[in-house]
Amino acid sequence: MRETNSSGKASQATATPPIAIRGLTKTYKRGREEVAAVRDLDLEVQANEVFGFLGPNGAGKTTTVKCLLGLARPSTGRASVLGHPAGSMEARKRLGYLPENPYFYDYLTGLELLDWVGRVAGVNGADRLRRAGELLERVGMSHAARIQLRKYSRGMMQRIGLAQALMNDPELLVFDEPMNGLDPIGRAMAKELIRELKTQGKTVFFNTHILSDVEELCDRVGIIVNAELKAAGPVAEVRRPGMNLEQTFVEVVNEAGPLRPEVAR
Amino acid sequence: MNAVLAIASNAFRESVRDRVLWVIVGFALLVIAGGLFLSELAIGQHGRVVRDFGLVVISVIGVVLAVFIGTALVHKEVDRRTIHAVLSKPVSRDAFVTGKFFGLALTLAVCTGTMGASLFLFGWIEGGAAHWPTLLAVAFTYGEQLLLIALAVFFSTFVSPVMGAIYLFGLWIIGNALPFFLGAARASDNLVTKYVAGGLYYGLPNLSTFNIRDLIAQGLLPTFEQTLWAAIYLAAYAAVVIWLAGRVFAGRDL
């Protein structure tokens, strides 16, 4: 399928887009069978864009993210991140990632986690503490800075996950279900944060099931079902006539036929 | 290098914040102290009994720690998915496994150091004089532990902790018995036996290199060449194993 950019024209970016995926296929072995988690995916995310990647459970969203981060290697096809091969050190230096249901070292305090993340990301000592303090404040976690993560609630874990993704002041943010576990106040904070990141010129790519958030935040969306991209483009163009995004999503999923079980973890 | 240090310091912090580790070390200290009572059974060799018994305890506890912490080290991160957040940062998989190795090496240095210092003091109290070779034997035991944790990290990159523990425990037994393989290779007239036993001797980790307990018990010391060879063997073998661990881990989808 042809993908269009936010101005509605066919994607012909002059500069290298922050995310460029060409013919990406990722297969896993299930017994003797090779099953595709993602099949022949073409996708571009332009600079300073907020892109929502939608799909039912097991559609291939997280596998795509894993390929972008170098956690999984494409079976065929290629992906580049910020002009570098996906998963390369150069790419990882300039991106921030929030995993789905984030798990961090639970023996660390919130402040220790951010300090440690800053250290592995190469942020120097003085900047690390200043940045950690600012981010804890930004995600409303200053009060829990010295509490071990094992005592955090799900929502607190999500907030600290957002903060750690921002420690290296990345150009590209990849969020896997950023609203998971957040209460309405937390969701408002996360949405405000995504808007703020766009204002700062950052690019945000996120997976989600909450379509109202997508309509509110995203410049463009992609819908992946059963490992294949079924629709992509500006929200207004992807929405079918007389339908909101949720109704469109349900129709696109139904058209794809029966949903298959999850392939990868 | 910065990433290796960050991973190592964090692995160390994780271990020392784990109460189970200190329960095991506390238990070891009690058993070593128990040697004081055991020494009452020996006539005129109280200090030696305490030292010999204590060195065996330190060796066994070192293996237990290497097996139970080391074999879960990388596997646990993959299982709990903490690895996703770590490897999304500019951290190579080689740096990750190397950092894990050094973190656990530091943990075992603290544990073995604590047990060794206690043994040295108990031996001094019971024997009436400081017995410095005890500390040398503890250092050699630590060398064995380093080789074991390198192997533990290697196994943890591709097998479950249970399988890793079985492999590592097996290698510990075989590794200490390797001189017998060499003896068999030299004595055999059968070419197959000769080459298989010789291959095992040179390929498998020769942990007997680090066992100087019998030597110390006889009142002898390892030569300078023997000590240097043990250090070179440890550095080379551990470096190859950690490099292999990095290669295996780099090939995995997470």
Write up what this structure looks like:
The complex is a heterodimer of chains A (265) and B (254). Chain A has 265 residues and is of the alpha/beta class. Chain A has helices at 61-69, 89-93, 110-120, 125-138, 154-165, 184-199, 211-217, 235-238, 245-255; strands at residues 19-30, 33-45, 50-54, 76-81, 84-85, 95-98, 172-176, 203-208, 220-225, 228-234. In chain A, strand 7, helix 6 (184-199) and strand 8 (203-208) form a beta-alpha-beta unit. In chain A, helix 3 (110-120) crosses helix 4. The two termini of chain A are 27 Å apart. Mean pLDDT of chain A is 90; it is low at 6-13. The longest helix of chain B is centred in the middle third of the chain and has 35 residues, at 93-127. Helices cover 81% and strands 0% of the residues of chain B. Chain B starts with a helix and ends with a helix. The mean pLDDT of chain B is 91. Chain B is globular, with a radius of gyration of 20 Å. By secondary structure, chain B is an all-alpha fold. Chain B has helices at residues 2-16, 19-38, 46-70, 73-80, 82-87, 93-127, 133-156, 161-187, 191-203, 213-217, 224-250.
Total helical elements of chain B: 11
Sketch the major β-sheet of chain A: 6 strands, mixed
Average residue-wise pLDDT of chain B: 91
Number of strands of chain B: 0
Radius of gyration of chain A: 18 Å
Summarize the main sheet of chain B: none
Q: How would you sum up the global shape of chain A?
A: globular
Largest interface: A-B, 32 and 24 residues
Q: Topology as H/E string of chain A?
A: EEEHEEHEHHHEHEHEEHH
Our Rg estimate of chain B from Cα atoms comes to: 20 Å
Question: Could you list the spans of chain B in which at least 5 consecutive residues all have pLDDT below 50?
Answer: none
Helix content of chain A: 25-40%
Proportion of strand residues of chain A = 15-25%
Strand arrangement across the biggest beta sheet of chain A:
6-7-8-3-9-10
CA-CA gap between termini of chain A: 27 Å
Helical proportion of chain B?
A: over 70%
Low-confidence stretches of chain A: 6-13
Label the overall shape of chain B: globular
Tally of contiguous helical segments of chain A: 9
